[in-house]
């Protein structure tokens, strides 16, 4: 049996054990099973599981940081980081999607100089690797989003900040030393949404990224199991009086600095329609992007209702069990947009080859989430910087292998769809 089939069978068996009432009747906790399940997720090899790196500089791939994060984080916090939806199959779907695309390498090109820079809305970034918004970074390291912002500054990356960040946007922008983009979970009350947007714009954010893929919620069972298995007092992490606690800094009634907000942010409007995009566009001078687009039809509607850009995303496998990866959705979205607006893609990106494939298929830039959180949990700012450095080095390597001396020279002809 192929190794990939063996791994899948092992995951299925462990998943059965985790849900088995017999296990509970026997008085055995699910912690061990969940740790075994985690060890099969996201492609970390047996060797990477066995040998933990002692410093950020020792890491050979982003998966080395995943192994450390699993060891150092409390059970519930790692489960929150690791969870997908239902049986976590979507994590594998996102990774398997990249295997549907082969690379066609070109030879004998002068590749002594490689230009990884990209232009987005008239701003030039050193790299197409974007730091995507992730919530509650205080759950992973005391420096939270500040460590991420400082690493972004040092490495020249665009950064998006979550609505449910642990750190005020003003502090993050100061640490970044320049504009960031603000990811928006819209509130049921429009006045609260407008207050968040105005605050982000006043702080110096350059764009607002409206997330539209969680209006129905999501079934994150691994996160729930992690909470059950964690014997700590959860109130210690969710106490808003604690610095960098695992909650948003936005007050649910007025969205001002301070207050005692819920960890998940404001209640979200399940009745939100495409008109909301236009309304948001009219409420701000910032660029407006729609995040969570996975079809060509919705890409076209985003454009029709005034969006300036699109983020192709399934929320890092946390939005729904669709059995479809974002890299597989990308071609129809690129076709629908026709080059008229930037397309950023995320969900499942772990290697330089993954990033190269998305750029070849027409993405403007590629976002990462979990990998930099693994680095953050492992070694703080140094870990985030090391993750970004590894991905950039891998991207430059494959660009040289393909004879693409700049991002603009990464072409559709570099890609062949399997079968």
Describe the structure.
The protein has 419 residues and is α/β, with parallel strands linked by helices. It has 2 domains: 3-100, no CATH class; 118-217 and 232-417, TIM Barrel, CATH 3.20.20. Helices cover 44% and strands 11% of the residues. The chain contains 18 helices and 12 strands. It has an 8-stranded parallel β-sheet. A two-stranded antiparallel sheet has the order 1-12. Helix 6 (75-82) packs antiparallel against helix 11 (221-229) and helix 16 packs across helix 18 (381-402). The longest helix has 22 residues, at 381-402. It starts with a helix and ends with a strand. The relative contact order is 0.17.
C-alpha Rg, in Å?
A: 21 Å
Category by helix and strand content: alpha/beta
The beta-strand count equals 12
Number of helices: 18
Distance, first to last CA: 22 Å
Helix and strand string, N-terminal first? HHHHHHHEEEEHEHEHEHHHEHEHEHEHHE
Secondary structure layout plus pairing:
Layout: H1 3-19, H2 21-25, H3 31-39, H4 46-50, H5 62-72, H6 75-82, H7 89-98, E1 101-103, E2 118-120, E3 123-125, E4 129-131, H8 144-155, E5 160-161, H9 169-176, E6 181-184, H10 190-203, E7 207-211, H11 221-229, H12 235-238, H13 275-282, E8 287-293, H14 296-304, E9 309-312, H15 326-337, E10 343-345, H16 352-361, E11 365-368, H17 370-379, H18 381-402, E12 415-417
Parallel strand pairs: 4-11, 5-6, 6-7, 7-8, 8-9, 9-10, 10-11
Antiparallel strand pairs: 1-12, 2-3
Helix pairs in contact: 1-3, 5-17, 6-11, 8-9, 8-18, 14-15, 16-18, 17-18
TL;DR?
The chain is of the alpha/beta class and 419 residues long.
């Amino acid at each position: 049996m192929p190794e990939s089939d063996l791994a899948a069978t092992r995951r299925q068996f462990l998943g059965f054990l985790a849900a088995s009432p017999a296990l509970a009747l026997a008085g055995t906790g699910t912690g061990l099973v969940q740790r075994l399940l985690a060890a099969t997720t996201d492609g970390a090899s047996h060797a990477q599981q066995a040998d933990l790196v002692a410093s950020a500089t020792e890491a050979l791939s982003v998966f080395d940081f995943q192994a450390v994060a699993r060891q150092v984080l409390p059970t519930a916090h790692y489960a929150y980081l690791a969870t997908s939806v239902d049986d976590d199959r979507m994590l594998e779907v996102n990774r398997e999607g990249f295997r549907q695309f082969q690379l066609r390498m070109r030879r004998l090109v002068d590749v002594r100089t490689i230009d990884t820079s990209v232009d987005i809305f008239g701003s030039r970034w050193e790299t197409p690797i974007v730091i995507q918004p992730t919530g509650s970074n205080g759950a992973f390291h005391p420096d939270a989003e500040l460590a991420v912002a400082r690493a972004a500054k040092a490495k020249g990356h665009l950064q998006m900040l979550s609505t449910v960040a642990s750190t005020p946007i003003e502090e993050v922008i100061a640490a970044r030393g320049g504009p960031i983009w603000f990811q928006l979970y819209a509130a049921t009350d429009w006045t609260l949404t407008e207050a968040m947007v105005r605050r982000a714009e006043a702080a110096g954010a350059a764009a607002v990224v409206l997330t539209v893929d969680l209006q129905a919620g999501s079934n994150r069972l691994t996160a729930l199991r992690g909470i059950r298995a964690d014997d700590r007092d959860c109130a210690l992490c969710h106490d808003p009086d604690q610095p960098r606690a695992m909650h948003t800094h936005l007050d649910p009634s007025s969205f001002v600095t301070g207050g005692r907000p819920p960890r998940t942010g404001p209640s979200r409007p399940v009745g939100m329609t495409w008109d909301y995009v236009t309304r948001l566009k009219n409420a701000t001078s910032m660029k407006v992007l729609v995040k969570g687009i996975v079809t060509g039809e919705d890409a076209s509607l985003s454009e029709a209702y005034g969006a300036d850009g699109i983020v192709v995303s399934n929320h890092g496998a946390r939005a729904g069990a669709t059995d479809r990866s974002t890299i597989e959705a990308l071609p129809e979205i690129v076709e629908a947009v026709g080059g008229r607006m930037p397309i950023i893609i995320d969900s499942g990106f772990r290697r330089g080859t993954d990033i190269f494939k998305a750029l070849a298929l027409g993405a403007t830039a590629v976002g990462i989430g979990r990998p930099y959180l693994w680095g953050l949990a492992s070694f703080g700012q140094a870990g985030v910087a090391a993750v970004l450095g590894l991905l950039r080095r891998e991207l430059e390597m494959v660009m040289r292998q393909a004879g693409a001396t700049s991002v603009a020279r990464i072409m559709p002809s570099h890609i062949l769809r399997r079968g």
